[in-house]
Design brief:
The chain has no helices and eight strands. With 97 residues, the protein is mainly β. A three-stranded antiparallel sheet has the order 4-1-8, with no helix packed on it. It has a three-stranded antiparallel sheet with strand order 3-2-5, with no helix packed on it. It has a two-stranded antiparallel sheet with strand order 6-7.
């Protein structure tokens, strides 16, 4: 079966007021990053890695968000969100596409 090595580039940034969001970036069961996201929209955190993939197989790129507690979202009595903790995806490139 033929294989191809693909280059991945992800740009992520945080919206936060208290604690940074935590993510794990995976393809299948292989972790490429696990930690906090602290970048801003103007200067995002950039993650680059390569993965050899087999032709005909199905793969999932997973950005798993963890660790957010209810205390990280502040809502007023009208139900409006005043403060929150978010992970934002600025860009995903796979083989420069």
């Amino acid at each position: 079966m033929a294989t191809e090595k693909l280059k991945f580039k992800l740009e992520l940034f945080a919206t936060m007021w208290d604690k940074p969001p935590h993510v794990e970036i995976l393809i299948g069961d292989q972790t490429y990053y696990k930690g906090d996201i602290t970048g801003s929209e103007e200067k995002p955190d950039i993650f680059q890695f390569e993965k050899e993939l087999s032709e005909g197989e199905i793969y999932n790129l997973i950005i798993q968000r963890t660790g957010k507690t209810p205390s990280q979202t502040i809502i007023n009595e009208k139900g409006d969100i005043l403060k929150d903790q978010l992970v934002n995806i600025k860009k995903i490139e796979i083989d420069e596409i």
